[in-house]
Write a structure and sequence with these properties.
Helices cover 68% and strands 0% of the residues. The chain is an all-alpha fold and 456 residues long. Among the domains are: 106 residues, Tetratricopeptide repeat domain (Serine Threonine Protein Phosphatase 5, Tetratricopeptide repeat), CATH 1.25.40; 100 residues. Helix 9 runs antiparallel to helix 10 and helix 25 runs antiparallel to helix 26. The protein starts with 8 loop residues before the first helix and ends with a helix. InterPro entries: PPR_rpt, TPR-like_helical_dom_sf.
């Protein structure tokens, strides 16, 4: 008879680290020794590992179950960074209310929230674009500590997201008046904001203040912002001078810098110069990434050179593009009226190991409706609803109107059934169907449609 050795707390941590499937990791954590009745003594590390794994997988129901169990633990002190991670997981999932709840629940874990977790919540609200909530939260900052550079960087980022240059400058002045030294991140956010608002001269002056007044070295992010700024105003000589300065300062030019230059040159119609920069990029050992591919695809499509666009999709640049590249090609094919080729590429995406996203479906569905390819549009809509994607309301109404106008009531019945199952039969859809079918002389088909609408 084989006797199974029970899993120890140390062994559980090792197994959780190696388990790639978060569902299996959850099962293992909740029942590590199914044949033993003794309570398992979980370590803090095992809690941290499973919460991280579940949070990254957005398995929040299971994660909250583990947190409730952790709340009952009294054998160890629970560190604040664990809650910062939980808050960030909710932020990535755009769940600001849950992020706030996680922050407010920290004391119930016998842990005192400090400025660290406060900043995590503030950043979560920024990620979710809850700017009013950020203002309300800042009124309570004194309960958790004195605002530091991280706090101000988050607030300045919020101003940047909203394009509020003056408000950002006031915050910058305020942090210096309070003796909070700005860091490289602060200057990166500000230069980005200035360049986005075509205040390039001010951005370069800020760079000088950063280097001379604060003795900080300009990093790649700041330089990239400056290059974007001068490219936006069309001064490519200036952009190349900034690039050369980066090289002199022993900063490695990354794909972001090269992609910025290539994209700007292509947009300005400087195609040959753009490809020269691409060659320089490769010669300097900087491998093109998915963004590079997308920039090239846009340029080829702009030139109606779909052969080259497909070549990039095939990975001929040494890297496979992401779904954005496919969406660009499908969009341009649809604009050219080549909807059949767009559909073929769409169906070929899984074989190319690239899953269509909501933009893919919407782009194709909109185009098929525009070109009155209702049968194909119906198939795309059916698959779209099955995958949980929602079409644009305007396109959906135009599609229904087109089916009514063309008298395609059999297809309309099928579509309405699908919309009903997906909960997408809105008021505008009702109005479109009612107004269109009532104009038909043969009223048998319209009554079938009304029956379907009532059942939906």
């Amino acid at each position: 008879m084989v006797s199974w050795k029970p899993i120890s707390p140390f062994r559980l941590c090792s197994l959780l680290r190696s388990q790639k499937d978060p569902s299996l990791a959850f099962q293992l954590f909740t029942n590590p020794n199914p044949n033993h009745d003794r309570p398992f003594r979980y370590s803090l590390l095992s809690y941290d590992l499973i919460i991280t794994k579940l949070g990254r997988a957005k398995m929040f129901t299971q994660m909250e179950q583990i947190l409730q169990q952790l709340q009952r633990e009294t054998r160890f002190q629970i560190p604040e960074p664990l809650f910062c991670h939980v808050i960030s997981f909710y932020a990535r999932a755009r769940l600001p209310a849950r992020a706030l709840h996680a922050f407010l629940s920290i004391p119930s874990f016998r842990c005192s929230p400090s400025l660290k977790s406060f900043n995590s919540l503030l950043h979560a609200l920024l990620t979710c674009r809850q700017f009013n909530a950020m203002s309300q939260l800042m009124s309570r900052v004194h309960h958790f500590g004195t605002p530091d550079a991280c706090t101000y960087n988050i607030l300045i980022s919020a101003c940047s997201s909203q394009g509020h240059v003056e408000r950002a400058w006031k915050l910058f002045d305020e942090m210096r008046q309070r003796g909070v030294p700005p860091n490289v991140v602060t200057f990166g956010i500000l230069t980005n904001l200035l360049c986005k608002n075509s205040l390039v001269q001010e951005a370069f002056k800020l760079k000088e203040d950063m280097e001379r007044g604060f003795r900080l070295k300009t990093n790649v992010f700041v330089y990239t912002n400056l290059i974007k700024g001068v490219c936006e105003i069309g001064d490519f000589d200036w952009a190349f001078r900034v690039k050369d300065e980066m090289v002199r300062n022993n900063l490695r030019l990354d794909a972001v810098v090269y992609n910025t230059l290539i994209n700007a040159l292509f947009k300005a119609g400087k195609k040959e110069e753009g490809f020269r920069v691409l060659e320089e990029m490769k010669n300097n050992g900087c491998k093109p990434d998915a963004v590079t591919c997308n920039v090239l695809i846009v340029e080829h499509c702009r030139q109606n050179n779909f052969v080259e666009a497909y070549r990039v999709l095939d990975g001929k640049e040494g890297v496979k593009p992401d779904v954005v590249g496919y969406n660009v090609v499908i969009g341009w094919l649809c604009k050219q009226g080549k909807w059949s080729k767009a559909v073929d590429l769409f169906h070929d995406m899984p074989r190319r190991q690239c899953a269509p996203d909501v933009v893919t479906y919407r782009t194709l569905f909109d185009a098929l409706c525009q070109w009155m390819q209702f049968a194909e549009a119906g198939l795309i809509l059916e698959e779209m609803i099955f995958k949980g994607f929602v079409p644009h309301a305007l396109s959906l109404n135009e599609f229904v109107e087109g089916l009514c106008r063309e008298g395609k009531f059999e297809l309309l019945l099928t579509v309405l059934n699908e919309l009903g199952r997906g909960g997408l039969c809105n008021e505008e859809t009702w109005k479109s169907v009612v107004s269109m079918v009532c104009t038909r002389e043969n009223m048998s088909a319209p009554f079938e449609v009304f029956d379907t609408l009532v059942l939906a």
